[in-house]
From TrEMBL:
Presence of the UniProt keyword Phosphoprotein in the record: no
Gene3D superfamilies: HAD superfamily/HAD-like, Putative phosphatase, domain 2, Riboflavin kinase-like
Upper taxonomic lineage: Eukaryota, Viridiplantae, Streptophyta, Embryophyta, Tracheophyta
Protein name stated in the entry: riboflavin kinase
Domain Riboflavin kinase: 312-442
EC number: 2.7.1.26
Pfam families (UniProt xref): Flavokinase, HAD_2
Length: 465
């Protein structure tokens, strides 16, 4: 049992929790204000506001002088309550393919072309057989799955040059640059640990500015006896970093990678790179939807500070097309009429953006520009078979506008898609998203996009606005 001494102004309050020592965290919005879980509210009465905290491996001390709590490692977390902490990490070990870079798109590109020479078609269904595998294993799986008339080694020799030629086109996963800059800026040691040969790792990251210098250690699959799921790569990384495996936080997209990290005795956050697979990552300490959802403070690491009023500014992106009839649930079941966009022709854009709730501005050719909040993904509550884009224009329209040209500029992120115990709770959450977006879009960082030429060019007559 850990006792937390919480200082609120001049009152010293005491609350107890029966969880593991040391870890506290901010709430899921990452905005630094931690919310109480119901049972903690009960125990701690939930009124104690922490202004600062001194965190040791086995204790948390409030400072009576200024009511603030200093955190070992040189950062201060403002929060209203302590939450069960997971485990304290002092450094981060990252996987590369699928975690920091979007290698999947490249794989389908290269394999699609290659297999067509054999009269076969890459359908992406075999991708899970390659995730987290060593190059040899991944190649063998494809040769077998497609019954190719060549040996695994011949396949590798033929594919490798096609692959490395495209390294320059591999995009960073959303949130990867932000994460690297954040940890680098806060002096958190980072390592890269991948099944790829070291030379390939270096080749791939050379196209991403500032990455190579950010990693204190890089370990490739060719530098250890066995690749993931063996713990070797991770253990070797910890050894080279001169840290205990137990103080390392691993971030991984694949199941073999998660297995490797756990076998090495590390804390593992999984970021599955293929959809609808979260339930398979049972050995991970946490499964998140994308790097945008990482909450470093859960692991005793410095929290991101770029969340603004429950929203995360992202690099703006654009999408548009005629409004199509969705499944008709929006208005009928939820009372939330979404102006669904056809995803035809947008498969690349869609695959590049993690599912989740985003917001921005929407231009309708005859009506003007409106605030908008939208979901991208499979709607876990309904479990849609396809990834859809469902923008909700925050305005009461007198009539439907199917077929009209809709343009969107997406400027921020709110949360990952979730499942809900009832339709009422789903509806309540979507309304909350709407309020968050509505308010945030008045902030200068977001409001300037209202005048984006992309939106204006589709608004035929905006004189009435
Ligand atoms: N569906 C879900 O299953 N989970 C969600 O977390 C979720 N969030 C949404 C957030 C917004 C802002 C909007 C507009 C929709 C969201 N939806 C979500 C999708 C909703 O279920 C969908 O629009 C209806 O199914 C209508 O097709
Ligand atoms: Mg990977």
């Amino acid at each position: 049992m850990l006792t937390w001494h919480i200082l609120t102004g001049i009152h010293l309050k005491k609350c107890t929790g029966s969880y593991n020592p040391v870890i506290f965290s901010a709430n899921s919005n990452g905005n630094g204000k931690a919310n109480l879980a119901p049972q903690e509210k009960e125990k701690g009465k939930g009124k104690g506001k922490l202004n600062s905290i001194t965190k040791h491996r086995h204790s948390v001390r409030a400072s009576p002088q200024n009511g603030s709590i200093a955190v070992t490692g040189g950062f201060t977390v403002k929060m209203s309550i302590a939450k069960p902490l997971k485990k304290l990490a002092s450094c981060v070990i990252l996987d590369l393919d699928g975690t920091l870079i979007n290698t999947d798109a490249l794989l389908s590109d290269v394999l699609g072309g290659f297999l067509s020479k054999y009269g076969k078609q890459w359908d992406g269904r075999e991708v899970h057989k390659t995730l987290g595998k060593t190059p040899l294993e991944a190649a063998a799986a494809i040769v077998e799955a497609y019954d190719l008339p060549c040996s695994t080694n011949e396949f590798i020799s033929a594919i490798n040059p096609l692959y490395s030629e495209k390294w320059c086109n591999i995009k960073a996963q959303p949130g990867a640059n932000r994460l690297i800059k954040h940890f680098g800026g806060h002096g958190v040691t980072m390592a890269l640990a991948s099944n790829s040969p070291r030379e390939n790792i270096e080749g791939k990251i050379s196209f991403h500015q500032g990455w190579k210098e950010s990693f204190s250690v890089i370990i490739g699959g060719d530098e250890v006896a066995s690749g993931k799921p063996s713990p070797d790569i991770y253990l070797e990384a910890a050894k080279k970093l001169n840290v205990e495996p137990s103080s390392c936080l691993v971030i991984e997209d694949s199941i073999p990678g998660v297995t490797a990290g756990k076998a090495a005795g590390m804390e593992v956050v999984a970021v599955p790179s293929i959809p609808k697979q979260s339930h398979l990552y049972t050995s991970a300490d946490e499964v998140i939807n994308s790097l945008l959802d990482l909450k470093p403070e859960k692991w005793g690491l410095p929290p991101f500070q770029d969340w603004v009023e429950g929203t995360l500014p992202i690099e703006s992106w654009y999408i548009g097309g005629p409004v199509i009839k969705g499944l008709g649930r929006g208005s009928k079941v939820l009372g939330i009429p979404t102006a669904n966009l056809s995803t035809e022709g947008y498969s690349t854009v869609l695959s590049e953006h993690p599912s989740g709730v985003y917001f921005g501005w929407a231009g309708l050719s005859t009506k003007g520009v409106f605030k908008m909040v939208m979901s991208i993904g499979w709607n876990p509550y309904f479990n849609n078979p396809e990834k859809t884009i469902e923008p909700w224009l925050l305005h009461d329209f007198a009539e439907d506008f199917y077929g009209e040209d809709l343009r969107l500029v997406i400027v921020g992120y709110i949360r990952s898609e979730a499942n809900f115990p009832s339709i009422e709770s789903l509806i309540a959450k979507i309304h909350e998203d709407g309020r968050i977006a509505e308010k945030a879009l008045d902030l200068p960082i977001y409001s300037t996009y209202r005048d984006d030429p992309y939106l204006k060019s589709c608004v035929k007559d905006s004189s009435h606005l």
